[in-house]
Amino acid sequence: MVSGLQKRAPLRRKLQNLSSLTKMKSVKRSSIFMEALLQIYMLKLKLEAVQREYLHLMALKTEYLNRIKHSQEVKVEKIEEGFLVRVKCENAGDTLVSVLEAFEEMGLTVLQARISSNNYFSMEAIAVAENQNQDQDQLDVRDITQAITRATEINGH
Predict the structure, then answer these.
(1) Which of 8, 9, 11, 22 is the most buried (most CB within 10 A)?
(2) CB 108, CB 142: distance < 8 Å
(3) pLDDT tens, 100-112?
(4) Is the domain of 47 the same as that of 87?
């Protein structure tokens, strides 16, 4: 037969372990259990706070990536030779073709261009009027900007 002391020994060891985990000096079972339950509840609250923060950060990341993905920039400046056109947008397959078609529709010829299309489409070009008789002043910076913006938006969607 197993004596009552032998039956209680595993329970005492578990209580000692629990007491050491909760850093309790008390030997009363009820105090140890209450402190352990309180610590478990506090850990649960901390875990929930971490989960909320994680979800918040993931939402910020998603929003940031969407803004980067859908951001585009078109800048046109009047320069001595004609127009300096800078385009940055999401890298889509035929962005360059769309931009060049927009230039053609406006009667512009590209004299010089630098293009990159690794992670996003980037272009810096100098464009002039095709017809020397056509006055550069007839072309408006705002109209060119709008045409290039439309060309990149149509291509991106």
Answers:
(1) 22
(2) no
(3) 999 999 889 999 9
(4) no
Residue 119 sits in a domain whose CATH number is: 3.30.70.260
Instruction: Answer with the one of 27, 45, 67 that is the final residue of a domain.
Output: 67
The total of other beta-carbon atoms located within 10 Å of residue 130's CB is 13
102-119: b (≥16 Cβ within 10 Å) or e? bbeebebebeeeeeeeee
Q: What is the end-to-end Cα distance of the chain in Å, rounded? A: 81
φ, ψ at 124 (rounded to 5°): -130, 120
Q: Are 62 and 76 members of one domain?
A: no
In the numeric block, the tokens 């969607």 are attached to: 157
The position carrying tokens 């030997």 is 27
Q: How many domains does the chain have?
A: 2
121 and 94, same domain (yes or no) = yes
**Per-position DSSP letters for 39-58, written without gaps between them:** HHHHHHHHHHHHHHHHHHHH
The residue written with tokens 């360059």 in the block is 96
Longest Cα–Cα distance of the chain, Å, equals: 116
pTM of the model: 0.52
